[in-house]
Amino acid sequence: MSNFTDREFRDALSTFGTGVTIVTARDGDGAPVGMTASSFSSVSMNPPLVLWSAAKKALSGEAFRDAQHFAVHVLHTEQSDLSNRFAKTGTDKFSGLDWNGDANSVPELPDVLARFECSQYAVYEGGDHWIIVGEVTSFEHMSGKGLLHVAGGYASARTLRPSSSEAAE
Ligand SMILES: Cc1cc2nc3c(=O)[nH]c(=O)nc-3n(C[C@H](O)[C@H](O)[C@H](O)COP(=O)(O)O)c2cc1C
């Protein structure tokens, strides 16, 4: 038993600013699934690995656990509405959206800052989440400002100063 509440833990974690992504895949019936995720992280250069974690209780949690392919879309500063759309459970998130992908392929959202196409590399149980590791098979990215999420709200970054390569590692 921990000596703090979920709320206290969440508030402490929310001091750590992140980017915002939408992860997409197909469920077992071929229907598109997608959810907003800030748990995205780089893992390895060689092989090229990334990870994110999906709540087990999310409607699409099992679909993501089982999906052999998925795509991670990094959002830019004008896409907070899109982020909110994909954070609403039980809605048709793709309705009226301009997205690509035939019945077998992973849904691709247009006009994002970066997209990483992944094949499933490993899935670990992480408490109430699935930790999903993907091997990046292709990617594209544009220049622009990334949408950030910090302290319970959306933000955009202002560069203070360059980081040294040692500090960045
Ligand atoms: C900024 C932001 C980041 C989020 N990050 C995650 C995350 O990393 N993992 C997760 O499981 N849910 C995350 N969520 C919540 C899901 O997007 C939300 O529960 C979504 O509705 C789940 O979709 P589903 O229930 O339709 O499958 C995040 C929500 C927001 C607004």
Give a short synopsis of this structure.
With 169 residues, the protein is mainly beta.
Looking at this protein, list some descriptive labels.
169 residues, Pnp Oxidase, Chain A, seven-stranded antiparallel sheet, three-stranded antiparallel sheet, 14% helix, binds flavin mononucleotide
Describe this structure in words.
With 169 residues, the protein is mainly beta. The protein has a single domain, classed as Pnp Oxidase, Chain A, CATH 2.30.110. Helix content is 14%, strand content 38%. It is built from 4 helices and 10 strands; from the N terminus they run H-E-E-E-E-E-H-E-H-E-E-E-E-H. A 7-stranded antiparallel beta sheet has the order 3-2-6-7-8-5-4. A 3-stranded antiparallel beta sheet has the order 1-9-10, with no helix packed on it. A hairpin with a 2-residue loop joins strand 9 and strand 10. The protein is globular, with a radius of gyration of 16 Å. Bound molecules: flavin mononucleotide (FMN). The site of flavin mononucleotide has 18 residues, from strand 3 and strand 5.
List the helices and strands and how they pair.
Blueprint: H1 6-13, E1 18-19, E2 21-26, E3 32-37, E4 41-44, E5 49-55, H2 61-66, E6 69-74, H3 80-85, E7 114-126, E8 129-141, E9 147-150, E10 153-156, H4 165-168
Antiparallel strand pairs: 1-9, 2-3, 2-6, 4-5, 5-8, 6-7, 7-8, 9-10
Query: What is the CATH homology-level superfamily?
Result: Electron Transport, Fmn-binding Protein, Chain A
| DSSP helical segment count | 4
Largest sheet: 7 strands, antiparallel
| Low confidence ranges | none
End-to-end C-alpha gap:
35 Å
Order of helices and strands: HEEEEEHEHEEEEH
- As a percent range, the share of helical residues equals 10-25%
What quaternary form is this? single chain
Placed side by side, the strands forming the largest sheet appear as: 3-2-6-7-8-5-4
Helix/strand class: mainly beta
How many individual β-strands?
10
CATH architecture: Roll
CATH class: Mainly Beta
Write down the CATH topology. Answer: Pnp Oxidase, Chain A
Please indicate the count of domains: 1
What portion of the residues fall into strands of 2 or more residues? Answer: 35-45%
Mean pLDDT: 94
Bound molecules: flavin mononucleotide
